[in-house]
Amino acid sequence: MIDSALFKRGMRRLAAGVSLVTTIDGDEPHGLLATSVSSVSADPVPSLLVCVNRSASAHDRIQKASVFCVNLLGEDEMHLAERFMSADKASRFAGSCWTVLETGAPAVEGALASFDCEVLKAVEVGSHTLFIGAVKVARLWDEEISPLLYLDGRFEVLRSAAAA
Q: Widest CA span of the chain, in angstroms?
């Protein structure tokens, strides 16, 4: 078996889109940044997979609420990514860029896309839970696409040919 530190160093070389995964617990919003987000299926039910470390503060909230919203972040949301990386959880949802779609989980107005989901299944694997969510609402907020990426411990931006 390989060393987990080597595995982590190798995976840092995989550029990944940055998503802000949110949920709601009563009236209190919670969220985390994730790079482990993937489509599962388009038919018969559009669905997404999100991998969440069980030590993350939002993990148990997602499990309890059975809803989450995946917000694909772009260049204009780098400030949100940095805010969610900080230890100051109280200021994460400050500002007016938030709205709700169907489930009540916060959606980022202006994100590249928001997928409002209801948990279909949760599977524990190692230190993480894989939450598979049925997409209830999908919203494309803007036509310009400059995705925020995470690579080797830092944020990068990819500009599409249309934006160049």
A: 47
> Is the pTM for the entire model greater than 0.70?
yes
Does residue 90 lie in a domain region? Answer: yes
CA distance to 23, 43, 44, 74, per residue, from 150 (Å): 22, 29, 31, 11
Answer yes or no: is 161 within a domain.
Answer: no
At residue 4, φ and ψ (nearest 5 deg) are -65, -30
Q: Is 3 exposed, middle or buried (0-12, 13-18, 19+ CB in 10 A)?
A: exposed
CATH code for position 110: 2.30.110.10
Give the number of domains in the chain. Answer: 1
Domain contains 163: no
Per-residue pLDDT of the chain in tens (164 residues, 90 and over written 9): 889 999 989 999 898 999 999 999 999 999 999 999 999 999 999 999 999 999 999 999 999 999 999 999 999 999 999 999 988 888 899 988 999 999 999 999 999 999 999 999 999 999 999 999 999 999 999 888 899 999 998 988 987 655 55
If we measure between CA atoms, which residue out of 7, 37, 15 comes closest to residue 151?
Answer: 15
